[in-house]
Every structure is written in C-alpha cells, then in structure tokens.
Design goal:
With 366 residues, the chain is of the alpha/beta class. 23% of the residues lie in helices and 21% in strands.
C-alpha cells in the first residue's frame, strides 16, 4: 500500500484554492477526467539518443503512473477534488498505479474499474537534451458491460478535462457541458496530417482550448502562436497556446482580453507531463476566478517546477512547492507573481512528497 502523498498536517498542504468560491450547493467533485493510465518508466541523464546496436546507460531512472494520471495527480496536488475514470489491470503495475493515485494522491477512483486478465499499458521514456523519446506498449481495455461507459455519465462537476481528436465526438463531453461542467481541452498530434479544426467535433462544448504552438499554428494555418491564439478564439471562448520555454499566450474571445507570460528558466530534468501540469494550473486559476494573465503565470510556474523532477504524475508540484519557490523567487519575477502573496501562507518548508523511484516497491522487511 502507498502511503499518503505528503504531510497533510501543514497549512500549505491543506490549502484550498477554491475556498473563496465554494458554497453548500456545489458539486462534490471539482474536476472529472478520463483516459488511459500507463505505468511510466523514465530514464534520465542520457548524453544522447540511444544508438542502434549499442547499449546506453542512464544516470537516473524513475517509475510512476503516467498517461491521464499525470493530469489527475497535478489537479489533486493543487487542491482540487479530482475524479478519474480509467481502466486498471489486475497485475502488479495496475495495483501500484491504483494505490499511488487513490491512496497517495487522494483521487476519487469510484468511476474506474479493475479488469481481470488485462495487463497495464507501459511507456518507457528517455529524456535527453531537453527532449524525450517514448516507446509504449498496451492493448485497448475491454469495453464495460452494461448501459454506459461510466457508472454515471459523467458525474456533475465544476469542470472536466478532455483530450480532443479528429472524428466523431465523445458523448460524455457533450453531457458534461450540458450538466454545467466547464470543459477544458488539449489535443494530440494529428497523425493524418490534415489538421482540420472542423474535425474536432467536441470543440463546440469547450470553454478553453490549450494546444501547443506547433499544433495551434497547424490547425489555424498561421505563422506565429499569437496569431493562432486569435484565430482559435473565434472558435472557442478562451484560447491558450503554450510555447514551451518561451511561455504562453491567450485570448479571451468573449471579452477581447489578451495575455502573454514568458516562461521561467529552470534546469529541466525531465519534461514528461509538463503540458498536463500546465493545464491543471490553468484549470485551477480559472475555477478560482483569477485574471487571465495570472492563470497563465501560475500554469507556467507549475509546469516549470514539474520538469525539475522525474516523471509526469509524481513530478507535479503542490502548494508547498509553489510556496517554497515564491519565498525565494528572483527579484525580476516578484511583480509578475505578486498574486501568490494572497494564496500561499508563510511557514513550514515543503513536507515529504511522493516522487518517482527506480522501482515500484520492495518486499517488507521482517
């Protein structure tokens, strides 16, 4: 069994970013998401990409839940009540991922299921020169028996996070929007090469769309991320374009507001899951009612903190890490991140937090 993710007795660990906007009639869950959970095995400290016919040794290695677990853990560590619907194998990998998310991160898995005889998907990620190369293996999970994909389709929540793809829409996304959930979406690489924005059927249900610069420019046939954000804001209320180390930009198509925040320079160990952490930070700021520029700044900060640790899900920062960074923030960033003064309390340094380790468990000692 996995122990609790951190010291929940400290004030920072109990911080609720939505506290000022909560009311007794609100949904019991803040964010719902669904997708595939992988067991990630991450190698870092490689001098270069592996060369055919040779053996490469990595100076670092970590294992952690991956895939949709990256975003679920990032949301939970920022204090949002998170519900995840996913399939888990009944092998040791599946047991580890389930316990790491439910017991370690406090994620609600009541809509997830364990599948006898189905093995967990696995991804091996190799990080080098600020990039990563991944090799994955897995099979589609058997469809559940019964009338629907989830026990409820889906639960009533403040928000839902979806990953869009070309083709027909997913009914759960439309249903979430009808129930009042604010839908945030990212998108993957279009392997077809068509980059047809009209093929993203569920975009019409989204409040915010958060592609990276390469994806955004291809979908909009534009030459720069800022132009892409303006074009996307004609299709979705809020368009956010991430630009890696250069930061992010956004346009609110409802109000005409624009914002751009540069990236924070850090020594990156592993970029796995940084995009998911960015989305989690932006969702948090949006649900809390922050200004657009502050949402971008916070999302960029959480992503920057995450790349300094192994893996995706267990590299995600929480409020202790945010507070620790803010207390020592460089002078040239103090003004931009001054909004953190009202969010992170002074006091104890970060407590112990579960991180990716080279193996998934040791036998108990006598």
């Amino acid at each position: 069994m996995v122990t609790n993710r951190d010291s929940r007795t400290s004030p920072e660990a109990r911080l609720d970013p939505l506290g000022p906007v909560r009311d007794p009639q609100e949904p019991g869950c803040d964010v719902f998401l669904t997708g595939t959970v992988f067991l990630d095995i991450i190698f870092t400290g490689l001098d270069s990409a592996p060369v055919r016919g040779t053996e490469s040794w990595a100076r670092g290695m970590g294992s952690s839940p991956g895939g949709v677990a990256n975003m679920a853990a990032a949301l939970a560590r920022l204090g949002l009540r998170t519900s995840l619907a996913a399939a888990f194998g009944d092998d040791h990998y599946g047991e580890y991922c389930w316990d790491a998310l439910e017991q370690g991160e406090g994620i609600d898995l009541s809509m997830s299921r364990r599948i006898p005889g189905w093995h967990s998907p696995v991804t091996v990620s190799m990080a080098y020169e600020g990039e990563r190369t991944m090799v994955s293996h897995g099979h589609e999970a058997p469809l559940p028996t019964g009338p629907g994909r989830f026990p409820q389709c889906p639960p009533r929540t403040r928000a839902a996070v979806a990953s869009l793809g070309p083709g027909g829409g997913e009914e759960w996304i439309a249903q979430a929007a009808r129930q009042g959930s604010r839908v945030f979406a990212d998108v993957g690489w279009d392997e077809s090469g068509r980059w047809d924005l009209g093929a993203l059927a569920d975009l019409e249900h989204c409040e915010a769309f958060l592609p990276n610069a390469g994806e955004a420019m291809r979908y909009t046939r534009t030459e720069c991320p800022r132009a892409a954000a303006r074009a996307l804001a004609e299709k979705v209320p809020v368009a956010v374009v991430t630009m890696g180390a250069d930061g992010s930009c956004a346009v609110d198509g409802r109000t005409g507001e624009t914002a751009e925040v540069p990236g924070i320079m850090v020594d990156a160990l592993d970029p796995t899951g940084a995009g998911d952490v960015f989305v989690a930070g932006f969702v948090t700021g949006t649900l809390a009612g922050w200004p657009l520029a502050d949402r971008l700044a916070f999302a960029g900060l959480t992503a920057a903190l995450s790349v300094q640790e192994f893996g995706g899900s267990l590299s995600a920062p929480g409020w202790p890490e945010v507070s620790h960074w803010w207390r020592a923030a460089p002078a040239d960033l103090r003004e931009r991140y001054a909004f953190l003064d009202a969010l992170v309390p002074p006091g104890a340094p970060p407590g112990p937090r579960r991180r990716a380790v080279p193996t998934i468990g040791f036998r108990p000692t006598a």
